[in-house]
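anyone else get weird line breaks when pasting these?? whatever heres mine. first is seq + tokens for prot A
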Amino acid sequence: MSEAVSQVGHILRNWKNSIYENLELPGGFVAYLLKHQYSEANIGLGKQCLKGADAHLVTNVESIAEELGYNLYLANLEYHLTGFPDQDEAEEVDYQYQKGGSCDENIPGMDRVTKASMTLENIVDLKGSPVIMGYRSLSVSGGNLIPKEPFQNAGPDEKEYEGYMGNGIAVQSSS
């Protein structure tokens, strides 16, 4: 059994035995981040879309979860940051744009984050059937995640930059 399977199994058993009584779990769930990124279409196929270590982990944890009375689901995790761009980089990008360049080519780095949010999207059971919980998405906090800070040294998959808007302030967003 792999270390990841042992770790998740240990957590589920301790949770079942109320070892984590003082643990704050908003919504009463834990989200374990898999190694690969899966599209909404892939997630809709259920566990058969999983690759390598992810497939191994889910297959092994599925039997442990079933034994303990837990449900396993698959979903996409969206991590969205909004903030202000690095001013020097933003001025250069805006200058290039005014000279006829494209803002999409050189998006400045984010200097200050003003808002961060995480949500689980496209939640399905292991067969790929949508889970109807009355929500299109489910908010996630760091307390729900394993590992706790998975994006600490990761760059964004997508970036947006509004650029200089006259008297307005430039805003940047990453997902």
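and prot B, same format (seq, then tokens)
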Amino acid sequence: MRDARMNPTFLNPQNFIVAEQGSQGKEKETGSATVVGFGQVRPVAGANEHVWELASVYVLPAAREQGVGSQIVSKLVQNFCNTDKEGASPRRLVLLTLADTASFYIPHSFGVVPDPVQAQPPLPPILVLEFLAGSVVARLSRGLGTKLVVMELVGK
């Protein structure tokens, strides 16, 4: 996570899924595999489990462009959608990401929230604060032209 310059707060191993690759496909024989990526869906604090965040998605550079990240996101979205309870209040799945990586999430049914501060229905205050603070940190750490966006799962 440190190498990816990701926010390490709110990490809970129970919320994660992990992608592994074996050494030349022999992981079943030897039991050895290498973690090549991971991600989580976690409840947003103060949202009474009505808003959840897809977070901490990371794939090792050597494993990128092989569909690993897409598999992680697809599985997390599928798990989220499969846990909706009949008759329960609708839940929202959101994520924060750099604007230049937003296109990765669009095929997974995420759309950009145009104005996270004035979103309707409103986003939880802690998520808006994370967006605002994260925007400042991203500009300071990655350059003034860096923009953070909030995306939301639509149509699922």
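btw re prot B: Helices lie at 27-30, 68-82, 102-105, 125-142. The beta strands are 16-22, 33-43, 51-59, 92-98, 110-112, 148-153.
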